[in-house]
Amino acid sequence: MDRLLIEPSGPLHGTVEASAAFFAPRVTDVETMAAILEALGVRIAWQEDGRLVIHPNHHAGWTAPYELVSLMRASICVLGPLLAKHGRARVSLPGGCIIGPRPVDLHLKGLEALGAVIAVEHGDIVARAERLVGTTVHLGGPFGSSVLATDNVMMAATLADGTTVIEQAACEPEVVDLANVLISMGARISGHGTSRIQIEGVARLHGTHHRVIPDRIEVGTLLIAVGMAGGNVQIKGADPSQLGVVVEKLIEAGVMIEPVNGSMRVQSNRELKSVDVTTLPFPGFPTDLQAQITAMMAVSRGVSLVREKIYPERFMHVPELKRMGAKITREGPSVIIQGVEELSGAPVKATDLRASAALVLAGLVADKQTVLHGVEHLDRGYQRLEEKLARLGARIRREEVH
Question: Which of the residues are catalytic?
Answer without folding.
Answer: 97
